[in-house]
Design a protein that fits this description.
The chain is of the alpha/beta class and 188 residues long. It has helices at 21-31, 37-45, 69-77, 104-114, 131-139, 159-164, 175-178; strands at 2-3, 14-20, 49-59, 81-86, 88-91, 97-100, 120-124, 143-148, 167-170. The protein has a single domain, classed as Rossmann fold, CATH 3.40.50.1010.
Length: 188
């Protein structure tokens, strides 16, 4: 497994981005990085043929004015395929309200369905649960790059996932490429 600032991309390869929204949000928050999704999309479009850019997140059903809604709408209007599902609300053993909205299965199924039409997958997540799908996609001949952070405390990327990938992009090293530029009116 290679660790580099920018893994090898080939201009003619078909690329898809799979963004685990909650995982990327947590990593970016830990790094104090304000992500510019337009710049992320453009970064990979400049490195090959970007087939699709997916964004996965769970939404709380009873929240009409979800803080995620403006982002989801912006992504939807700017070339991202949005995959959502209702978050589950429950109370833990101490009586505290908790929200659960795991999108792992949706992301894994989409990745497997598209694998035959791709040369390179970029997974924005550090969740070790994706090791199996990364392995399956690689066995189909698709290269996999994981983008997350090992520089946070604790690390946001599972060591097993980092090892499973063909290459790893350290999110902390991509600040110049992925960070929102203050003052831009057209940012997300």
């Amino acid at each position: 497994m290679a660790t580099s600032l920018a893994p090898d991309f080939h201009q003619n390869e078909r690329i898809a981005i799979f963004i685990d929204g909650s995982n990327l949000h947590a990593a970016a928050r830990a790094l104090k990085l304000e992500v510019d999704f337009r710049r992320i999309r453009q970064y990979f479009a400049d490195r090959g043929h970007l087939v699709r850019a997916f964004y996965y997140t769970a939404l709380i059903e009873d929240q009409e004015n979800s803080p995620l809604r403006p982002l989801i709408d912006w992504l939807d209007y700017n070339g991202f395929t949005i995959v959502t599902k209702p978050a589950k609300e429950f109370y833990d053993e101490t009586g505290n309200r908790r929200i659960k909205g795991n999108m792992d299965i949706e992301l894994a199924v989409d990745m497997m369905e598209l694998a035959d039409h791709l040369d390179h997958v970029v997974l924005f997540s550090g969740d070790g649960d994706f090791c199996r799908v990364v392995d399956a996609v690689k066995r189909k001949g698709v290269r996999v790059t994981v983008c997350s952070s090992a520089q946070t405390s604790p690390a946001m990327v599972a060591d097993d996932l980092r090892r499973q990938a063909d290459s790893f992009i350290e999110l902390a090293n991509m600040r110049e490429e992925f960070e929102r530029v203050n003052g831009r009116d057209d940012d997300n």
